[in-house]
Amino acid sequence: MTDPINWGVLGAAKFAREHMGPAIHAARGARLAALATSDPAKAAPFAAFAPGITVHDSYDALLADPGIDAVYIPLPNTLHVEWTKKALAAGKHVLCEKPIAMSEAEFDGLIAARDAAGLLAAEAYMIVHHPQWQRARDLLADGAIGTLLHVDGFFSYDNSGDPGNIRNKPDTGGGSLPDIGVYTCGSTRFATGEEPQTVACDITWENGVDVVAHMRARFDSFTFAATTSMRMHPRQEMTFHGTNGLLRLTAPFNPAVFGEAQIELHRNVHGGGAPASVTTERFPMARHYVLQVEAFGRSIRDGAAYPCPLEFSRGTQRMLDMAFAAAGPA
């Protein structure tokens, strides 16, 4: 039997405690073995679901642990590049929270560090591992809605009552586009295989971070519009509209929290103004964080192609950079 991949987590972040830590523990071929935190109280919840976990009092100490094969990095956005490079230099595979970088230019150094180390480094972009998105990509490629003409998306939540949240602070890389614009933009690129040619964006700023962003883009064969917001009632939806039908994805980004992942396929089978037929596919049992960890492990062990390499993440960051450039300074 192959030994499990031993994972360490840099920092006792809430997301790591509630989602990625349990996912690592539940994934086949993986073991949550270590946590870096200087606060023993923050380690207790991790030990509750991962008995025997080693607690290091610093990130450097965890990276020096010879028993750790891979690290998960849930640190504030502005620390991602630094600690991804440090982990690679220490001989660890790296799964880093999104956005892994704050600009496209930073990917040059990340890719060079990955290649020099001969290890796997990737952004934790979990939706590409979810069967909802894999099915949507296949349906589009098979022409289920005819020729794709337009994509629109929406992702919002309201954290106005938490001004200390890192997403509300410019010095930690906050803002709706870095936090959730990666989903509306990246999912469109993943599902269609196309890249944006032009991008326009209107932004509402607060304290130097974008709290509402309305983005419009033109891809080679379709148009795109999406809204992200940290000041609106929670909503998640992506729609792909074609000549003969449309795909509507419900709970497309965090179905475990927001609702059930579904794909609605609307098709006007009779032509003209007749009502469309609607078929719905549901994915109630898929655990995309677990699937992400398992895919990461297969890539390490078997050399399987990883669905979200740094080159893919670079393309999404390029689109976000285009949006910020179009919107202008805060």
Search tags:
Dihydrodipicolinate Reductase, domain 2; alpha/beta; 330 residues; globular; single chain; eight-stranded mixed beta sheet; six-stranded parallel beta sheet; Rossmann fold
Number of helices: 10
Name of the top-level CATH class of the largest domain? Alpha Beta
Which stretches of 5+ consecutive residues score pLDDT under 50?
none
Kindly report the CATH topology of the largest domain: Dihydrodipicolinate Reductase, domain 2
What oligomeric assembly is this protein in? single chain
Strand content: 25-35%
DSSP E strands, number:
14
Radius of gyration: 20 Å
What do you see in this structure?
- This protein has 330 residues and is α/β, with parallel strands linked by helices.
- The chain folds into two domains: 5-124, NAD(P)-binding Rossmann-like Domain (Rossmann fold); 127-289 and 316-327, Dihydrodipicolinate Reductase, domain 2.
- The protein is 35% helix and 29% strand.
- The protein has ten helices and 14 strands.
- It has helices at 14-26, 40-49, 59-63, 80-89, 107-117, 131-141, 176-192, 255-258, 288-302, 310-327, and strands at residues 5-10, 30-36, 54-56, 70-73, 93-96, 121-123, 148-158, 196-206, 209-219, 223-229, 231-242, 245-250, 262-267, 277-282.
- The strands form two sheets. The protein has an eight-stranded mixed beta sheet, covered by helices on one side. Strands 3-2-1-4-5-6 form a six-stranded parallel beta sheet, sandwiched between helices.
- Helix 1 (14-26) packs across helix 9, helix 4 runs parallel beside helix 5 (107-117) and helix 7 crosses helix 10.
- The longest helix is centred in the C-terminal third of the chain and has 18 residues, at 310-327.
